[in-house]
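Pilot study result, target chain (186 residues):
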Amino acid sequence: MKIGYARVSTDAQETHLQMDALKRAKCNRIYEEKASGVKTERPELMRLLDNARNGDVIIVWKFDCLARSLRQLIDTTVLLNQHGVELHSLTENINTTTPSGKLTFHIFAALAEFERDLLRQRVNAGLKAARRRGRVGGRPKALGEADLKKARALLRSGDYTRVEVAQELAVSRHTLWRALVKNVTL
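Predicted structure:
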């Protein structure tokens, strides 16, 4: 039996392209999921793996729908092979039912992981270079030094609660509390 699996990372994305391709591949059953590939909790993938039987072929639009790392992809493929289930990727045109497809699968998977590692290195190098130039990423601080001085003065006066001070500064009480704790005690 041909079993399809379609996945997108967020609810804002759609699986229409993948679903159309899986239908053209004449999948008897298609499992569809909206979940990050990094997550280990993917109920539809688990359901697919539980229902796959000896002789079945799992068809995906691209391998990254199935797994986000080489290790995860190889582990999944090994698990499938132990149960007599093969894997076919439509976009990469790799079919593990053939010896050449298995070889191509391993080569492409290694190259994909190499590419992700290079990208991760470039991003980290860019972040380090930006920090050396004094640029710090992330969200701007909600409370500046003047706001913290005002908050401390209001709290010391005893006329204001933390909730009232937070309202005065237009931040949540948690933001105020974190900022006060981080910047020494009152």
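One observation from the pilot: The mean pLDDT is 86. A full batch analysis is planned for the follow-on phase.
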